[in-house]
């Protein structure tokens, strides 16, 4: 099936040698170009990426949003797929993407990809994992927010649809890695909120926010249906929420 529309895949990396190949294998036969920005890997990440593309740049680390905007600036195709090194398209999503690019006309300007968060041997279907992320979009007119963490892409004006299949997300290597990642994201979130002038409103509210996060993910969004792993995930997000607002409170009082 011949593509009527070209596809750039953008990927940012650092020390992902154990995971990046699965990611690249899932998109190499679909992409017209693969753009990798690496922020100083000390393992084999760069060498692995170079087996799949000659467009690999080693650069500094300015934060998630700025780094993804740098990668987007290098893209030249009609459409862009932004994927992380710990993600991979499942077979259904690969076929859906091929079929989409073969259409004469694509009306939407962006697509959300259902996330298949795979953690501790289980692909989660509920809780915060039961959501879709905007990762496929027309290149022209699109840009990233320049946030330190939890950056988002702002596509060109138009409609957004959902692609079928799953964007598999192997979010943690092990529990220790999960703890490290949660701590990093919480602190980056604290700094982002402080930079934007957001207020913590005290440590008591930080605790209330954490409890609400657990209730939202585990009960309201059905995380309990994912069993023991669903409980672990809900508790992790609650802890991240608490840590983020504690960090913000400390920054407000110059005690960080």
Automatic annotation (TrEMBL):
Pfam families: Glycos_transf_2. Gene3D superfamilies: Spore Coat Polysaccharide Biosynthesis Protein SpsA, Chain A. The keyword Cell cycle does not apply. Residues 8-157 form the Glycosyltransferase 2-like domain. The keyword Acetylation does not apply. The chain crosses the membrane at residues 202-221, 227-251. GO terms for molecular function: transferase activity. It comes from the Bacteria. Keywords: Membrane, Transferase, Transmembrane, Transmembrane helix. Belongs to the glycosyltransferase 2 family. WaaE/KdtX subfamily. This is Glycosyl transferase. The lineage of its organism: Bacteria, Pseudomonadati, Pseudomonadota, Gammaproteobacteria, Vibrionales.
